[in-house]
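Lab notebook page, bench 4
Experiment: in silico fold of construct C2
Operator: M.H.
Input chain length: 340 residues
Purpose: comparison with the prior construct
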Amino acid sequence: MAHFAEARELMTPKRTAVALAAGLGVAAGVGLATFGVRRLLDAYRQGPPNTTLVKVAEVSRLFIYPVKSCKGIPLTEVEVTDLGLKKGPLRDRQWLIVDEKWNMITGRVEPSLVLVTVSDKNGFLCLNAPEMEELRVPLKPSKSNPVKMCRVWGCNIEGRDCGDEAAHWISTYLRNSRAFRLVCYEPSMKPIYLKEKEPSFLDSDKTVYNDTSSCMMMSEATVEDLNTKLEKKVKMENFRPVVVVKDCKPYAEDTWKGIQIGTAKLHQRMYCTRCIFTTVDPDTGIINRKEPLETLKRYRQCDPSEKHIYKSVPVFGSHYGIEKPGVIRVGDPVYMIVQQ
């Protein structure tokens, strides 16, 4: 039986004819063609041998956040790699803002970072922010720039400095007496292996400057349910997922375990814990330090048996490990992989 990921290629007139000639059919003529297409359709739906693919949702939105804590880029298609999502030369959380001691700086302490828009043009990373001229830095910093060991949630990871112009721009925008710099992750650098800090992950799970995994997923229904409990509604952007899904029940993304989307396979590793960053308004960059976090604390605590993992921190959304790289598009069905 053909794998689900291969079935999209198979299900074309040309490839169907080739498959039929190779022995999928048992008779000639129209009936033979119908039989062959049916076999291929079954393969598309069922996936690998001994599994069944059950549709549980649909992809509604996709994001990457090339500079940690800055505004996300909405996309219609992404490439899923073992280090997370990317589009063209931009990878999710590939750039990081650090202080003079090379510790990460995020929207938790500098909430106005969420107003910085990110794009790429002609080999440059472009940053724009209110009352600032556009900053352009090379997507590939000069090899003469120093590589520094940075700290991200207690983990050491390298980053190449992006130069004084970027440092001056960020420090000016944040209007802080501290000196900030921008660093970039390069493919030759060692990633963070998630198993070393979270036992729920596998040895193969890795990331760059993300808080936890390289793929955090949420459903529209999850945020809609939260909004029924709030005076002031929040947006999906408050929670910064990379994959957003619809047509499912609230919190369904916590239960799927193995899933297939497009040609990528993902597996739920753990829930996403939530902090004060959720209280930053993505439209104004103002932090209120209360909602929606206080409401989440009241109703989104983990099961008592998992207190050793999550403590008393609320959980909202789920982290997925990358089981198989591929391509995901808005509109793709989300299939749960069910073992037979």
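Observations: The longest helix spans residues 30-46. The radius of gyration is 22 Å.
Next step: discuss at group meeting.
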